[in-house]
C-alpha cells in the first residue's frame, strides 16, 4: 500500500483518500527565486553567486552517490544533515547517482527540505543510475523536477538532447565581478556504439559513458563569463571519471605523491572509466582547470595531481552507497570540502561522518 500511494504521489503530487484515514499531500509549491542565508543569487547567461560578507572564502561541499531509496531513506537524510552541520557550506554539489529507485519525486522533495532547513543552495550533475530505474521520469525530466525545487540550482535547456544540466556557476566578489567558475557537466550513463566507434572502441560489452565532443566545446566557452574575458580559474564536477584518473594514480603511486585516499575498485587500472578518451582532460589543461571532482567509484577516494590538474574522487556519502557493507570502508563515508579564496586559490579536504576519524586534510 505504501508503494502504491507513493506511486500516485509521483504522478499527481497530491493524493487524499477519505474514509480510511490516509492523507498524502504534495509539498508546498516552490518559491519564485532561490533562497540562501549566505549568498546573493543572480541568473544571467550563467548562475552568479556572491557572498554576503565581502572577502570571505567560498565553501563548497561535494556529496556523491547518495543512492537515495525508500529503504534507509531516513538514515541517509540524517547523514546528509550531519554533514551540513559539520561542514557549514555555502553551496552543495552532488556529483550523481542521487536517487536510484523507481519512485523518485518524494525522495527529491525530502532531500531538498534538508538543504532548505539549513538555508543552503544545492546543485547536481546526473550519474549513470539517476532515473535508470524510475517509473515516470527520464534523465531530462529528473533534472527538470529538480529545477522546480526552491533550493536547487539547475538549468535544463529545452532543446537539450542526450546530456542535461551542463552549466557554469560563477563566484563573484562584492561588486559582482566573477573570479572563479564551477563547471557542471553530465558525463552520461553508458557509451553509445556511435561515440565508441568514433574514438576507436568496437567492443560489444556495456561500458561507461564519456563526455561528448560538443560538451567539451561548450565547456571552453563556460569558463569565460563573456566572449571578451579570459578563462577564469575553475574546477569541474561530473560523475564518471576520465581515463586519466588511471594514469594519474599509477604515476602518483609510483612516485609516492598520492595526495589522499586510495584506489580500491576491482577494475582494470582500478578505475571505472570509459574505454575512450574524447578530449576532456586535454581541454581542461588548455583552459587552466585547477581540479576535477567526480563520484561513481564508491570505494575509490584518491586525490592526485596529474599534469597540473588535481584529480579527485569525492568522498562517498550515505550508508546507501554499496561500499557500506564493508565496515572498514563505511568509516570513509562523508563528503569533500572545496574552499575557494577570492584570489582563486583552492583548498581541498575530506570530511568524514565517523567522529573519531575527524577531518582528513588533503
Structural commentary:
This protein has helices at 2-12, 73-87, 105-118, 139-148, 193-198, 213-222, 244-255, 280-286, 327-330, and strands at residues 15-17, 22-24, 39-43, 47-51, 58-63, 91-95, 121-125, 167-172, 178-184, 234-237, 289-294, 303-306, 309-313, 334-340, 346-352, 359-361. The protein is α/β, with parallel strands linked by helices. The protein folds into 2 domains: 1-30, no CATH class; 31-361, Metallo-dependent phosphatases (Purple Acid Phosphatase, chain A, domain 2, 4-Layer Sandwich), CATH 3.60.21. The strands form 3 sheets. The chain has an 8-stranded mixed sheet with strand order 3-4-8-9-10-11-13-12, with helices on one face. Strands 7-6-5-14-15-16 form a 6-stranded mixed sheet, covered by helices on one side. The protein has a two-stranded antiparallel sheet with strand order 1-2. Helix 3 (105-118) links the parallel strand 6 and strand 7 (121-125). Helix 2 (73-87) packs parallel to helix 3. The radius of gyration is 20 Å and the shape is globular. The N and C termini lie far apart (47 Å). Residues 7-32 and 356-362 have low confidence and may be disordered.
Amino acid at each position: 500500500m505504501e508503494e502504491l500511494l507513493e506511486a500516485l504521489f509521483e504522478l499527481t503530487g497530491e493524493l487524499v483518500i477519505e474514509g480510511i484515514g490516509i492523507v498524502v499531500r504534495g509539498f508546498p509549491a516552490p518559491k519564485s527565486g532561490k533562497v540562501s542565508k549566505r549568498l546573493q543569487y543572480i541568473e544571467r547567461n550563467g548562475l552568479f553567486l556572491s557572498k554576503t560578507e565581502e572577502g570571505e572564502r567560498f565553501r563548497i561541499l561535494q556529496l556523491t552517490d547518495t543512492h537515495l531509496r525508500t529503504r534507509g531513506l531516513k538514515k541517509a537524510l540524517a547523514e546528509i544533515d550531519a554533514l551540513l552541520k559539520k561542514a557549514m557550506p555555502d553551496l552543495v554539489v552532488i556529483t550523481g547517482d542521487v536517487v536510484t529507485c523507481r519512485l523518485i519525486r518524494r525522495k527529491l522533495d525530502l532531500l531538498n527540505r534538508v538543504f532548505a532547513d539549513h538555508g543552503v543552495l544545492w546543485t547536481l550533475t546526473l550519474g549513470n543510475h539517476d532515473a535508470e530505474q524510475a517509473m515516470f521520469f527520464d534523465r531530462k525530466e529528473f533534472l527538470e523536477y529538480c529545477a522546480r525545487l526552491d533550493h536547487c540550482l539547475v538549468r535544463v535547456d529545452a532543446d537539450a538532447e542526450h546530456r542535461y544540466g551542463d552549466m557554469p556557476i560563477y563566484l563573484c566578489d562584492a561588486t559582482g565581478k566573477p573570479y572563479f567558475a564551477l563547471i557542471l557537466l553530465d558525463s552520461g550513463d553508458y557509451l553509445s556504439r556511435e561515440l565508441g566507434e568514433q574514438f576507436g572502441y568496437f567492443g560489444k560489452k556495456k561500458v561507461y559513458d564519456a563526455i561528448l565532443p560538443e560538451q567539451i566545446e561548450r565547456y571552453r566557452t563556460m569558463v569565460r563569463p563573456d566572449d571578451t574575458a579570459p578563462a577564469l580559474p575553475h574546477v569541474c564536477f561530473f560523475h564518471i571519471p576520465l581515463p586519466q584518473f588511471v594514469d594519474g594514480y599509477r604515476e602518483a603511486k609510483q612516485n609516492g605523491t598520492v595526495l589522499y585516499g586510495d584506489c580500491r575498485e576491482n577494475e582494470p587500472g582500478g578505475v571505472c572509466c570509459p574505454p575512450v578518451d574524447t578530449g576532456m582532460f586535454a581541454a581542461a589543461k588548455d583552459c587552466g582547470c585547477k581540479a576535477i571532482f567526480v563520484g561513481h567509484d564508491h570505494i575509490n577516494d584518491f586525490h592526485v595531481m596529474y599534469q597540473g590538474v588535481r584529480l579527485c574522487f569525492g568522498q562517498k556519502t550515505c550508508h546507501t552507497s554499496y561500499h557500506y557493507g564493508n565496515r572498514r570502508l563505511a568509516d570513509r563515508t562523508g563528503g569533500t570540502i572545496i574552499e575557494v579564496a577570492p584570489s582563486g586559490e583552492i583548498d581541498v579536504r575530506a570530511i568524514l561522518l565517523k567522529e573519531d576519524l575527524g577531518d582528513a586534510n588533503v
